[in-house]
């Protein structure tokens, strides 16, 4: 599975209250209005999938949340065989690599690893020895694919910190941005460092029992003011991806204005949620029983989304991270 080239050739299913139509991502400037603002996530995915060893046992660790300059939470294949205090080494056996220690095994099934270096030195080690943390349905050989370091980044990627790509942003090209500019559509950047927990399936019957992982985000005072100005002038807020939407809604007051944001959010949006600021959502097609499908169902309505997904399957749309997309208009509350 690889992204289409050019990226803006991907298909786009437009879903409005009572209607839907088949388009292309490249049609987006004509589907929006002059005076709208489109909001992107500029997080950058860091290569956090690590091959390592404990004594003679091979392990694979995927770091998913940074706790401190030298400490990460990680999902580890074969974690049941690990013990607190175990010493791990990462990198090819023929190179010096770097090391870590299991400092805790956690109730959620992940582990906490403290590395032998921190800050910039740890980031350099990850860039050198790590692989891109692709979703499990994107199959690669053990060595990974060199192209994924570029393919699994958006053109907005600036701020290091994500362990999964904000995939709706993968569809954008310089050509498409120029067309949006020419159509009078403003754009803004915020940051939400996507964590692996966003994509975990919901395994409980009552969604109140599902634990959302915290993700760090930043929206500047300038961007907040830009969004508020657009709304005052009657323009619409278009979120590119569920990550952008979640940060916008986390920063929103009941009247729909947004304030600067610098912190963490674990906002879990399910049907019944009343959206405050986002009017349209551009997003890929998601796994069933995921928090992401619950979010889009809350936004556009459960029945329209189920019907749209059936249409997408019959029409041969590509699903998931390197797939096609849909443009959702907010349904009636």
Describe this structure in words.
With 333 residues, this protein is of the alpha/beta class. 22% of the residues lie in helices and 29% in strands. The longest helix is centred in the last third of the chain and has 13 residues, at 302-314. The chain is globular, with a radius of gyration of 20 Å. Mean pLDDT is 91; it is low at 202-210.
List keywords for this structure.
8 helices; QueA-like; 6-stranded antiparallel barrel; 9-stranded mixed β-sheet; alpha/beta; 2 domains; 29% strand; 333 residues; Thrombin, subunit H
Q: What summary fits the major beta sheet?
A: 9 strands, mixed
CATH superfamily of the largest domain: QueA-like
CATH class placement of the largest domain: Alpha Beta
Structural class: alpha/beta
Rounded Rg: 20 Å
Shape: globular
What would you call the quaternary organization? Answer: single chain
Record the strand order, biggest sheet.
2-1-17-16-14-3-12-13-15
Number of H- or I-type helical stretches: 8
H-E order = EEHEEEEEEEEHHEHEEHEHEEHHE
Q: Total strand count, please?
A: 17
Mean pLDDT: 91
Unreliable stretches:
202-210
Percent helix range: 10-25%
At the third CATH level, what is the topology name of the largest domain?
Answer: QueA-like
Taken as a percent bin, the fraction of beta residues is 25-35%
Give the CA-CA distance, first to last residue: 37 Å
């Amino acid at each position: 599975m690889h992204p289409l080239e050019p990226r803006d050739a991907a298909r786009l299913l437009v879903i409005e209250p009572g209607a839907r139509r088949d388009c292309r991502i490249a049609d987006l400037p004509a589907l929006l209005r002059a005076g709208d603002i489109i909001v992107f996530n500029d997080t950058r995915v860091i290569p956090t999938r690590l091959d390592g060893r404990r004594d003679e046992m091979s392990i694979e660790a995927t770091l998913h949340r940074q706790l401190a300059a030298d400490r990460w939470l990680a999902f580890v294949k074969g974690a049941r065989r690990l013990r607190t205090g175990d010493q791990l080494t990462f990198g090819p056996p023929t190179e010096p690599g770097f090391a870590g220690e299991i400092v805790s095994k956690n109730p959620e099934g992940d582990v906490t690893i403290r590395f032998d270096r921190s800050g910039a030195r740890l980031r350099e080690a990850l860039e050198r020895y790590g692989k891109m943390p692709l979703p499990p349905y994107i199959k690669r050989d053990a060595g990974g694919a060199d192209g994924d370091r570029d393919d699994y980044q958006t053109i907005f990627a600036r701020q290091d910190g994500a362990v999964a790509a904000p995939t709706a942003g993968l569809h954008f090209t310089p050509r498409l941005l120029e067309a949006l500019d020419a159509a009078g559509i403003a754009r803004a950047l915020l940051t939400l460092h996507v964590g692996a927990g966003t994509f975990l399936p919901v395994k409980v019957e009552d969604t109140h029992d599902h634990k959302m992982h915290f993700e760090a985000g930043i929206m500047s005072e300038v961007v907040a003011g830009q969004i508020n100005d657009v709304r005052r002038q009657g323009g619409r807020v278009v979120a590119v991806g569920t990550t952008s939407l979640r940060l916008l809604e986390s920063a929103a007051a009941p009247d729909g204005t947004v304030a600067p944001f610098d912190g963490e959010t674990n906002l879990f949006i399910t049907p019944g949620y009343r959206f405050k600021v986002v009017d349209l959502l551009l997003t890929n097609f998601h796994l069933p029983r995921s928090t992401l499908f619950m979010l889009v169902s809350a936004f556009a309505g459960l029945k329209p989304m189920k019907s749209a997904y059936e249409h997408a399957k019959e029409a041969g749309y590509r699903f998931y991270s390197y797939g096609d997309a849909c443009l959702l208009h907010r349904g009636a509350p």
